[in-house]
Amino acid sequence: MKRGKKDYAKLVGFYTLVVAIILYAVFPFYYAILSSFKSGSALFEVNYFPFSLDFGNYGSVFTGQNFGQSIWNSVLVSFGVVALSLLLGLTGAFALARVRFRGRGLLLMTILGVSMFPAVAVLSGMFELIRFTGMQDSLWSLVFSYMIFTLPFTVWVLTTFMRDLPLELEEAAIMDGATPWQTITQVFMPLMWPALVTTGLLAFIQAWNEFLFALTFILVDEQRTVPVAIALMGGNTPRELPWGNIMAASVVVTLPVVALVLIFQRRIVAGLTDGAVKG
Amino acid sequence: MPMSNLTRSRVRSAWIFLVPMLVILALVAGWPLFRTIWYGFTDANLSDPEARQFVGFENYLRRGDDGEWYGLLAEFGDKGNWWLSVWNTVKFAVVSVFLETVLGLVIALVLNASFKMRGLVRTAVLIPWAIPTIVSAKMWQWILNGQYGMMNDLLMTLGILSQPLSWTADPDLAMASVIAVDVWKTTPFMTLLILAALQMLPSNCYEAARVDGIHPVKVFFKVTLPLIRPALMVAVIFRFLDALRVFDLIYILTSNSKDTMTMSVYVRQQMVDFAEMGYGSAASTMLFIIIALITIAYLKIGRVSFEGGR
């Protein structure tokens, strides 16, 4: 088939659009990486291609401040959140998906409702609870309070996934005299890795990124998480922000998340559409 | 009967499994919400919440000794920023979700076509979504910097601007800048959900349309859009709920500035910066009610026109 002039024009138009989309999505982060390798006065000259490769910002961000500690805090909180929400989500989802009992539909709707909660609406009540339990300035306050974002979503996605698993599996397990806990850990868990990876990753990302609670409940520098540490990075004067350091810190905390998302992109897309479209 | 015994023991173990999850949910959501509403009727201060007095609806509306009305509901104009922040939030949410939907549709349609670099483009499109909100806010703050920012340099090099603009400080530009950054960050979410819906569409209606020689634009509006409408409505409500509680982005880009103050920023300012725990809690409660009402209205209106079957 011969292509006419009109077809070529269409093709050129289409690929122009494709290139524009790529530039729009990637360029800001590319520019942040570029800036993170510049220091001194070079930082304040705009250029669009890598001219300098100065690791100074990466060195100073780890030596001058508690940034290494902040990364460690964020890692602890995020893994704690993932572990707790998967444990509670898995057992809760088993009950909601596999056992018929009165009030099940109502419970599911309530859980979905909680997932739409604006977190700021519970700020003062949560603050009081955290102060009352003595968790203030401790990372536990964050592991605990982040359950409001991660738990409803985890339960919801795992329930929809578990509901579709064949009944025969469970019947066989019951015949063999397995307890419900054994059924979950030995029969369902091996089949549920895809769903567990997806919900775990999304919980991890939410915990890694959360800002409002981390800013409010933790007031000592040693216990800060990464987003708050970056937000509070200041210079000698309030008007002079250390942009080189901020960009270096941003790149350091973003690369692992971007890598995770790109490696697991198919699973994440599946999880998001499960949570949103089926919900 | 053995079967009913088994059923009974299953139901019992189901509840044992459910209880820890429900207790945690009640502790992180139910109880704090109840306490927040309750604090809204007190004059508690953040530094010492124990020393509080019940003040009824005074945080919401009260008559001052000078005969003027005070309280959240009276915070119009120079009396306070509450209604301004409600208006800012709604404006922010409506405009940014609208732009994200349009952009998300365009990008999803591109990704739905088959071409060589498709995998690469899909990966690239995901990057803004993967970047933590704080990081993307800081990144854009640097790009939009009035003195050294790349945006001014780029637009002046291209001859679009004759002099640099202060994107986040200028009252006329601040809201637009904040919306632009939010659109950049969240369009991938829209794109993914729309793409998932597009890929589930049956291909036979498209072939029929092509055989009949119907213009692609007409096919889009008459076939594609109605078919993906349910998925689109769900994606829009998810994003809209998210946009109504926006905090991080605005707090970083424009701090407590009046021009972009949203409900969440207002609540935090009252509660933390001014230590007005009671008043802030009343604002929290209002925020909760407003978001709940908007959600219900959206679901109702969405369903009505949906059943109207256009």
Description:
The complex is a heterodimer of chains A (279) and B (310). Chain A is mainly α. Chain A has 14 helices and no strands. The longest helix of chain A has 32 residues, at 5-36. Chain A is globular, with a radius of gyration of 24 Å. Chain B is mainly alpha-helical. The chains are: A mainly alpha (279), B mainly alpha (310). The interface between A and B is large, with 85 and 93 residues.
Mean pLDDT of chain A: 86
Share in helix of chain B? 55-70%
Question: What oligomeric state is this?
Answer: heterodimer
Task: Tell me what portion of residues of chain B adopts beta-strand conformation.
Answer: under 5%
What order do the SSEs of chain B take from the amino end to the carboxyl end, as H and E?
Answer: HEEHHHHHHHHHH
Predict the CATH topology of the largest domain in chain B: MetI-like fold
Structure summary, number of beta strands of chain B: 2
Assign an overall shape of chain B. globular
N→C terminal distance of chain B: 55 Å
Biggest interface, chains and residue tallies: A-B, 85 and 93 residues
Number of helices, where a helix is a run of at least 4 consecutive DSSP H or I residues of chain B? 11
Structure summarized in a few sentences:
Chain A is mainly α and 279 residues long. Chain A is built from 14 helices and no strands. Chain B has a two-stranded antiparallel ribbon with strand order 1-2.
Question: Which properties best describe this structure?
Answer:
heterodimer, A: 279 residues, mainly alpha, MetI-like fold, 2 domains, 73% helix, 0% strand, B: 310 residues, two-stranded antiparallel ribbon, 11 helices, 70% helix, 1% strand, disordered C terminus
Topology:
The complex is a heterodimer of chains A (279) and B (310).
Chain A: H1 5-36, H2 56-63, H3 67-98, H4 104-115, H5 123-132, H6 139-145, H7 147-163, H8 167-175, H9 180-191, H10 193-209, H11 212-217, H12 226-231, H13 243-263, H14 265-278
Chain B: H1 2-39, E1 62-63, E2 69-70, H2 82-112, H3 118-130, H4 133-143, H5 150-157, H6 171-199, H7 204-211, H8 216-244, H9 248-254, H10 263-273, H11 277-307
Antiparallel strand pairs in B: 1-2
